[in-house]
């Protein structure tokens, strides 16, 4: 009976699974493209660093903290007009990716900044001493040295996005969260709820294992 119940939901679960991957992939990609430069900007404009600029540092920091301080479910609703403008709809995985991306960018940027702060200042000073330009230092020193931390930041961001994508199901974002709410919660079907929870646990574990493996592979220290 239990196996029959699980088998009957496999087509819908399969669709929800790929919708979740789609949302996470888009928002993670956007967070990498925007969040990585933003994280570098937060670091290099700090006091005593390559492009010290208190105004830019404070402005970027306030913007990042402002977005991070809003709970995702509220941000999701608040960005519905922007989502409608960009995607032409407020439901579905593509629409949910807008809010996911906005939430992921400052989150990832702070993780990148933290990774850069772990670099020994002596390495940066040595690069400056031999006449390296600021852009060379960023490209040849900061990013290679921070690579393991950045890979871990990507892993943490991807796992967080998986959780956020489940919340996106509340407003019709699709994915595993939407599947669990419609087929599990509303129908009081514990089998579906347990199945989705197990699936999410498996996905998170796989993400973490892969992320840890890649971080070890790129760590040349």
TrEMBL record:
Pfam families: BPD_transp_1. It is a multi-pass membrane protein. The keyword Acyltransferase does not apply. InterPro entries: AA_ABC_Transporter_Permease, MetI-like, MetI-like_sf. It is found in: Cell membrane. Keywords: Cell membrane, Membrane, Transmembrane, Transmembrane helix, Transport. The chain crosses the membrane at residues 20-44, 65-85, 91-109, 150-171, 192-211. The keyword Transmembrane helix applies. It comes from the Bacteria. Residues 17-211 form the ABC transmembrane type-1 domain. Its main location: membrane. NCBIfam families: PRK10782.1. Belongs to the binding-protein-dependent transport system permease family. This is ABC transporter permease. It comes from Fictibacillus barbaricus.
């Amino acid at each position: 009976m239990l196996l029959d119940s699980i088998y009957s939901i496999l087509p819908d679960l399969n669709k929800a699974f790929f919708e979740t991957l789609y949302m996470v992939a888009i928002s993670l990609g956007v967070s990498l493209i925007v969040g990585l430069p933003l994280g570098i900007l937060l670091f290099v404009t700090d006091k005593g660093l390559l492009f010290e600029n208190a105004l830019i540092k404070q402005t970027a920091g306030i913007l990042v903290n402002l977005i991070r301080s809003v709970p995702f479910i509220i941000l999701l609703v608040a960005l519905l007009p922007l989502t409608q403008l960009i995607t032409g709809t407020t439901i579905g995985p593509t629409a949910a990716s807008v809010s996911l991306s906005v939430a992921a960018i400052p989150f990832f940027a702070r993780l990148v900044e933290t990774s850069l702060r772990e670099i020994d200042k002596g390495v940066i000073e040595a690069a400056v001493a031999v006449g390296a330009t600021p852009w060379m230092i960023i490209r040849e020193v900061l990013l290679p040295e921070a690579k393991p931390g950045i890979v871990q930041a990507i892993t943490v961001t991807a796992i967080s996005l998986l959780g956020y994508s489940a919340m996106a199901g509340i407003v019709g974002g699709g994915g595993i969260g939407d599947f669990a709410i419609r087929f599990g919660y509303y129908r009081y079907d514990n089998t579906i709820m347990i199945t989705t929870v197990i699936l999410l646990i498996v996905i998170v574990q796989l993400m973490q294992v892969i992320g840890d493996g890649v971080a070890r592979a790129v760590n040349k220290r």
